[in-house]
Amino acid sequence: MHWSTALLGAVALAGSAAAQDTYTYTDGEGRTFLGYTNTAGIRYGIAIAEGAIEGAYDAMIQITAPNSIGWAGLSWGGSMTYSPLAVVWPNGDDVQVSSRIAFGYSLPSLYYDATYFFLPGSGTNETHFTATALCMGCTSWTPPGAGPIDLDPNGENTLAFAYSTSPVTDPDDIDTTFGRHDAHGRWSPDFSQAQHPDFYDWFEDIEFPCPTVPPPTSSVPASTSSIPIPTPSDDPADPDPLPVPSSCPGVSSFRSGFGVANGWRAVKLAGNLRTPRGIVLDTRGNLLVVESGLGVTVHTFGPDGCFASSKTLISNAALNHGIGLTADGRTLYVTSMTTAFEYSYDPVAQTVSSERIVVTGMIQGGHPTRALIIPPAYPHLLVISLGSYDNIDHPTIDPSVGRAIVKVFDMRDVPQGGYRYNTQGYLLGYGLRNGVALAADGNSHIWEVENGADQFQRTVNGQSYDIHADNPAEELNYLGDPSVENPNWYGYPTCHTIFGAEQLTDAQFQTGDQFVLAPNATFSDADCVRRGSVPARLSFQAHTAPMDAAFDRDFENLFITFHGSWNRPQATGYKVVQVPYTRNGQGLYEPVDPPNSRTAARDIFWSENESSCSSFTCFRPCGIVFDRAYSRLFVASDRPAEGELFMLARV
Ligand SMILES: *[C@@H]1O[C@H](CO)[C@@H](O)[C@H](O)[C@H]1NC(C)=O
Ligand SMILES: *[C@@H]1O[C@H](CO)[C@@H](O)[C@H](O)[C@H]1NC(C)=O
Ligand SMILES: *[C@@H]1O[C@H](CO)[C@@H](O)[C@H](O)[C@H]1NC(C)=O
Q1: What is the 3-state secondary structure (H, E, C) of 122-152?
Q2: What is the pLDDT of residues 146-197, one digit of tens each?
Q3: What superfamily would CATH give domain 244-637?
Q4: What is residue 383's predicted lDDT score, i.e. its pLDDT?
Q5: Residues 278, 322: contact at Cβ < 8 Å?
Q6: Is the CB of 582 under 6 A from ligand 2?
Q7: With a 6 A CB cut-off, is 125 part of the ligand 1 pocket?
Q8: pLDDT tens per residue across span 509-520
Q9: How many angstroms does the Cα of residue 202 sit away from the middle of ligand 1?
Q10: Which ligand ends up closest to the CA of 495?
Q11: 494 lines ligand 3 (CB under 6 A)
């Protein structure tokens, strides 16, 4: 989903509405709305009661869209994440309104703290569909880990909209999946102009028996444990690898075509998960999965190598990616966009206890993932990566801003209420745009795989040209020993890394060189190295979107998941790659290939027709982890159409 860039500060594709684009209209039922029509011809209307008092006041929305639109959404908070969302779509002669919330840039979950009641003037005709609804709970909310947000009934509030021409998967289902938006933008209506003295008269005669959103039911199957789990006093030390099944009973087939490298086989372990992101293995070989919008689920294996049982370990819809266990498997860490939590974990019972907030104050906005890792040799250190706010987040040139950065927190001495992310802990490098993939090598030194920027133009002597298809590279950076501070700057937001050198025609470059977008008298490309920007150790194809990484047993290969692109004429990514490593004379681990290599990543597991993939049509590898015997790799795919878990096994 890329409702994201509405928030990420890039120019919103569908524009941003100034006050003068807002107008008042009266609909066929005689109700007056403050309205705005975007370039796709979708009209958004808002009405509230005269004299509404800040807090939780009622609001009416009306969304009218041409029938060519698959779904249209409104964010009450002006961003995709941490705001109540209304998503509407046609359903035969009717329409649906789904109350949602997103804690990452993935399919929003149902949101139960806001309720929409349909009002007359909802339905479809030959050309348009219209949803008119009263919302309770849309003007005041408290995002997890942040303070309350109240929309000002007497002033301007920034809302956001997004839409797609692709229909939702199942229009009957209020909890249906749907793909990312085609475009998005913002609208900042002055709510004082949306006030109307007759507001309550408009639905005086209407009974509101059934909210459009059903009350919460457990969306996770209760434990379906069928295999009795022995309880030895210790974890089995040298596990026997489980057999590799050719398929798993009751699991649907692969949602889309794929290929695997020679020597590997792919098996689907589970489907229909809720946006599976980060995954870890516990000391008994059970798989823990962050299902974004749900929490953490735990899956045990049966003797056939398939899942034997699945249950919810932590219910917290705000958890969106980060997960890690200490090497002894007894302490679990997870993150939401704003907060890192610690739990005691019991791998025998698969239960958590003693929740503690260990890091807070991670910004609510920008890139939402807070990847974490606990270096095996330093079980008391929690390493957390926090990405940039915008595509180019200028203030992050100062590390004290606390974004585009990796920081380390000592869990032996957590302040009351948790560390504040941007003022406490210590640096493990800054100028790291969005390092979602973190891995620890055989020395417990940290490697970061970074998502480079989008929409790049190179400007030289006032002339700009497009270089974005193959630049900047996704970077592999060495952050070093996490037990000591690493104050180094890795270049962002000023210095970026070349992947496709041939796209830069104004100078001679090779893959791995650093460059600036617009060289000038005070900062040339060569100044990147001169001013201490640490070059990437390897470069990968631009826009492949690295999500996670795992070393094999002997640290001879790093396996990286590439989620797949949106900002490229031909799609790329949607695969798992293998990068060979070696140990050098100083005992340090490093990639085999030199920094100017373009072929360091070898494909292991890929989507068929990669270049025409979208986030909806192809799998999107995300979390990756080896089993205890290092013979099987587990891979989560958080594609909105279906969350899947795969197993890659050596054959
Ligand atoms: C269909 O609905 C739209 C939006 O309410 C309206 O503008 C249009 O006139 C309607 N068309 C017909 C044929 O009723
Ligand atoms: C890949 O392309 C081929 C040829 O166009 C087509 O038959 C096949 O269905 C495509 N596969 C996927 C997963 O899109
Ligand atoms: C020169 O380029 C640097 C790096 O991109 C930038 O920070 C600086 O503002 C530029 N200076 C001028 C005068 O444009």
Answers
A1: CEECCCEEEEEEEEECCCEECCCCCCCEECC
A2: 778 999 999 999 999 999 999 999 999 988 999 889 999 999 999 999 999 9
A3: TolB, C-terminal domain (2.120.10.30)
A4: 98
A5: yes
A6: no
A7: yes
A8: 999 999 999 999
A9: 21
A10: 3
A11: yes
